[in-house]
Specification:
Radius of gyration: 21 Å
Strand content: 25-35%
Distance between the termini: 48 Å
Helix content: 25-40%
Number of helices: 11
Number of strands: 21
Length: 390
Amino acid sequence: MHTEDTWITTPVTAELLRGALDLERTEHGVLPHRLPAWARAQCADGQLAMAESQPSGVRLVFRTRATAVELETLPTKRVYTGAPPRPDGVYDLLVDGRLAGQASVPGGNTLTIDMAAGTAEQRPGPAGTLHFAGLPDGVKDVEIWLPHNETTELVALRTDAPVEPAPDRGRRVWLHHGSSISHGSDAASPTTTWPALAASLGGVELVNLGLGGSALLDPFTARTMRDTPADLISVKIGINLVNTDLMRLRAFAPAVHGFLDTIREGHPTTPLLVVSPILCPIHENTPGPSAPDLTALGAGRLRFRAAGDPAERASGKLTLGVIRDELARIVAQRAAQDPDLHHLDGRDLYGEADAAELPLPDRLHPDAATHRRIGERFAELAFTGDGAFR
């Protein structure tokens, strides 16, 4: 049994974190961010603020002889009015790269979102502590992956032996940007989002800029990627532009070119993979916006519908089919002068046969089994054979 006197408290600093691009000091401790402060200042969108503060791919990494670890955190839980309660976020403990435990932190702040009314209200709550004991004796590398879909302030790290930053293992760094599907949507845990699975299979260090609802070709995101050290880069473009009905075809192509141009300013010869959307039947030929299905919501289920009209494609409205065709054309055009630019059709990750076997539960987001399938397929297509990241 550990007493207060036997615990060693180590300040959480950037040296102990991977996958975060900024660390904000709060009244409780520190809050990891996946976009730097200057980028956050350029957009007042609440959806983006929530998404980038959810630490998908962010993990504490340290070397220690400790056999017990405590992490005190202040989570922010999301509640959707009319929908079933969401499970608590999961923390994954890895010891020398292998899953050694999972836990959740109860309590915390509560963010209540009314999708029908378009409102959100936050109420404060208490911090909580997760405890991992019985770790093997001896020097080891410990990783605590934070919940991918739960904003998490880090209050205190306590161990029964000193900790130090883990050494660089010499792995390539993979920087990925995408939508809520890349963010992790309904994956079972932070190490089983499809990018985390693919990174593990590919033997690379992940920096995940999957931003739920916010893969919108924002210039500040492109500049963040330009300025972030990386050996491999991928961008998954499409579904959020349809979800939000943000732009028409006339604006889309120049925006893609501009996004890629900006990345290339900082990474002129880095392998860069452009991934088009996975299959999403409601938006294959029907434009956005996406809207909550109020009938399903009234029955206690969260489900989405396509609120656009297929006839609006003639006026330049975007569908996933239109976006896939345009991305393939843009990459082919640019690759003539950029041999390190590559394209991957998202339907090779999740297509019609997959949708028949593993349909998207809410019509937009993959479940845990589908995340695993997408991650395994991406690893095979990108990291092996003639893949962009071979």
